[in-house]
Amino acid sequence: MRGADARVLDAVTLSIAEGEHTALVGPNGSGKSSLIKLITRVYWPLLHEDRRPAVRLFGQERWNVFDLRAQMGIVTPELDRDFIAGAVPALDAVLSGFFASQGLWHRNVTPAMRAAAEGAMKRLHISHLASRAMDTMSSGEVRRVLIARALVHRPRALLLDEPTSGLDLVARREFLETVRRLAREGTTLLLVTHHIEEIIPEIGRLVLLRAGKVAYDGPKEDGLTDARLSAVFGAPFEVRRRDGYYAAELC
Fold first, then answer.
1. What are the tens digits of pLDDT across the range 1-20?
2. What is the mean pLDDT of the chain?
3. Which of 134, 155, 176 delimits the end of a domain?
4. Is residue 124 situated within a structural domain?
5. Staple 209 to which of 30, 105, 123, 199, CB 3.0 to 4.6 Å?
6. β partners of residue 238
7. Is residue 251 included in any domain, yes or no?
8. Model pLDDT for residues 20-64, shown as the tens digit of each residue
9. What does the alpha-carbon distance between residue 158 and residue 147 come to, in Å, rounded to a whole number?
10. What pLDDT score was predicted for residue 168?
11. pLDDT of residue 72
12. Mean of the pLDDT values across residues 109-135?
């Protein structure tokens, strides 16, 4: 059990360049969620001894959270739950990305915003869902709407936290193909997962976390090995590769 003073991340140093598609992988409790909350400013870092912040994003140390989220699109399972709980039309959900809200209550939506939202939905081939309520959609449809929401303000990076959680096999493959297309179009991806089969071929860099520390950081093909995954997950794995994707099975 972690006490109030326990370290959930310890001496983690990462520098990710724009265009450097990266997967962050580790078992439950490895520190993935805490690192994402640091990046998205849900958590705030302790200061270094020289009193400088420990996290710099897009070259900047201090951010207004709303300004940061205009630079970084975020898709998490928590967003699914928030939007599915209400009868928000898909187009309104996408527009809400401009306001970091869950709806458009008392919001001033400009024609330019509406055009951008419609463009984001068209880009993801979901224009036909514009008037559908989120609570009537499949999990795969909801996830694509939330990607459109994340992309509506043309962010510099897209953060995907366990993005295929709850999706069936067909919806997962469709979702991953959508993400592949975004990567090829130039959106920087940071994928957080403990399922290595989600790591699309366009991702070249792998970061493995274990017990709050970086266990590996480098090329994907050198990190997704039997020995490294077995060490990180604490169980014997056999890794296979096919058509640019990887899969792992317990031995």
1. 344 566 677 767 778 888 89
2. 84
3. 155
4. yes
5. 30
6. 249
7. yes
8. 999 999 988 888 878 877 777 677 766 555 555 567 666 666 666
9. 9
10. 85
11. 78
12. 92
Yes or no: say if 23 and 193 are a contact pair by the CB < 8 Å rule.
Answer: yes
Tell me which residue range forms the domain holding 141: 85-155
What total of structural domains would you count in the chain?
2
Q: Give the CATH number for residue 47.
A: 3.40.50.300
Per the confidence metrics, is the pTM higher than 0.85?
no
The verdict on residue 64 lying in a domain is no
* Residues 111, 50 share a domain: no
| Measured distance CA(24)–CA(223) in Å, rounded | 11
**Is 207 a domain residue?**
yes
47-56: pLDDT as tens digits: 555 555 567 6
Tell whether 53 and 160 lie within a shared domain.
Answer: yes
Residue recorded with tokens 């008037």: 131
Q: Could you write out the three-class secondary structure of the chain?
A: CCCCCCCCCCCCCCCCCCCCCEEEECCCCCCHHHHHHHHCCCCCCCCCCCCCCCCCECCECCCCHHHHHHHEEEECHHHHHHHHCCCCEHHHHHHHHHCCCCCCCCCCCCHHHHHHHHHHHHHCCCHHHCCCEHHHCCHHHHHHHHHHHHHCCCCCEEEEECCCCCCCHHHHHHHHHHHHHHHHHCCEEEEEECCHHHCCCCCCEEEEEECCEEEEEEEHHHHCCHHHHHHHHCCCEEEEEECCEEEEEEC
Per-residue pLDDT, 60: 65
Tokens for 144, please give them.
């694509």
CA distance 95 to 119: 11
Query: End of a domain among 155, 179, 199?
Result: 155
